[in-house]
Amino acid sequence: MTRYRAPRWPATPLAVGVPAGVVFVVTLLSTTDMLRWRFPEWVTVSAQFHQLTAFTAPVAGAAATYWSGRLPAPDRGDTTAHAVVRRHLLLLTAGFVTAYLLGLAPLTVVAALRAETGHAEPLVMLSGVLALVAATVVGYLIGLLGRTAWFAPVTFLLLLAVAVAGWSGDTFAGLAPVLHVVPALGQRESTPLVLYRVTFLALVAAVGTLLAARAARERRARRSAPSVQAVGLCALLLAVASVSLLNQPALFVLERHPPVACSDVARVQLCVHTGHRGRLDDLADSLAPVLTAHGAADRRLGRIYDRALLGLRQDLPDDQRTLWYEVHPAVPLRADLPAVSAALAGVHACTGGGPEDQHRESHLLALALQQWLEGAADDHNPFAQLPRESVQHFIARHDKAIADCSLRIEYLP
């Protein structure tokens, strides 16, 4: 029986070890900032399993193309080419997936130790692993069809383009493993989207393996026309891909009944998702100076809610008096503070007018009041030299004018 001739270079440990090392280092470095999070969120950590394929999948695919592109043609009549292809793909995918998971291991351990609520999402994680496998198979197939390792850069750019397509918006969310936005606490990737992505990527890997085995057997013959089987498999992939393009599944769904932890600050209810419970005291300390300086914040705001609680929005009795605040592991707690001071100072009511608008004076006064509430008023601020009690009396007396952007300079004490 004739055999598929064993290649010299690159079928060595280095041919797998070097790109696997790159995959490991890129993955580990990409998670460095998240390792410092005091309160990681499982939904975000799980998403990293597919998000980080943006650069690791092109590396794996290009390495597979380099490998298969340098393989010698099989002997005529060879019946073992398909077995060799399977062994090669098993070796390549095992090496790259192992390196990828090792790079993600520290982040997973940190989430297991520090996350205050939630759990790992296996299907979401699996989609990332399948993306890496599919990229490797596609890269191997390109090398066989191209019959040269010089196609490795083409594979890299092609797979990078897939990531860019995912970054571009919702259109390719079911096909590309990389999303243009990462889910946060209080939401999760929709089940139809995840199931479709897992199915599609598994199909890409399976079809790619079948086509690679066939391409290896026919490499000696150098056929130019594709077989009926190859055309049928490609048509199947296109048909499955069109389902997502024509009927895009929802990207995320909100947690319908998220658990809540609350505290009162200056008679304003402050609530966060229990996954952010460890940050509630720090958040209260950040908001207390603004709410206390206002003196009657409860008149304008009934509650300040963590955005992770958006699933409760339809159950709130008075959504107009609810301010949604950003609490995220990667965002400083004070980053959304201007939203609170702007709401209390009436800045939002004045937006939309140009320099010549009749509300310009009121808008400037609202901005000045916002600065004063944040403790950032300079010497030119009309509220800077006034005692706190006078400003609070002004706010209480002209609450309606603040709300409808009709403040006037003559109203100042």
TrEMBL record:
This is Uncharacterized protein. The keyword Transmembrane applies. The chain crosses the membrane at residues 12-29, 49-68, 89-111, 123-142, 149-169, 194-216, 228-246. Keywords: Membrane, Transmembrane, Transmembrane helix. It comes from the Bacteria.
